[in-house]
Amino acid sequence: MMEQYERKARFTELKPYDILAKEHDFMEVCEWNNGEGFDVTKNEQQFSLTWGQWECLQALVAFKG
After folding, report:
1. Which of 42, 36, 28, 30 is nearest to 55 (CA)?
2. Distance separating alpha carbons of residues 51 and 58, to the nearest angstrom
3. Which residues, at least 6 apart from 17, have a Cβ–Cβ distance to it below 8 Å?
4. How many CB atoms lie within 10 A of CB 38?
5. 50-62: per-residue pLDDT in tens?
6. Which region, left, alpha or beta, applies to residue 49 given φ > 0 means left and ψ of -120 to 50 means alpha?
7. Sign of the C-alpha dihedral, residues 24, 22, 38, 48?
8. For residue 10, what pLDDT band results from cuts at 50, 70 and 90?
9. In angstroms, rounded to a whole number, what is the distance separating the alpha carbons of residues 38 and 51?
10. What number of CA atoms fall less than 13 Å from residue 22's CA on the CB side?
11. Taking Cα atoms as reference points, which of 31, 36, 65, 41 lies closest to residue 52?
């Protein structure tokens, strides 16, 4: 069976956020249709995270030791 759906996505140029960004560098985040995670695209690179993995990453970045 084939399904059609729309994904929630957000897109931005990276330059205002990243001192190392080049002109036209971008980032896009698309939520999965099942709501359990999201895909991140930075230029040609892409990775996926579940919401639990995202929470873990935030904890690791904020960790002060």
Report:
1. 36
2. 11
3. none
4. 20
5. 999 999 999 999 9
6. beta
7. positive
8. very high
9. 8
10. 2
11. 36
Amino acid at 41: T
* Lookup: tokens for 30: 């698309």
Q: At 37, which amino acid appears?
A: G
SS (H, E, C) the chain: CCCCCCCCEEEEECCCCCCCCCCCCEEEEEECCCCCEEEEEECCEEEEEEHHHHHHHHHHHHCCC
pLDDT tens per residue across span 14-29: 999 999 999 999 999 9
Give residue for tokens 């931005």.
Answer: 12
What pTM, to 2 d.p., does this model score?
0.84
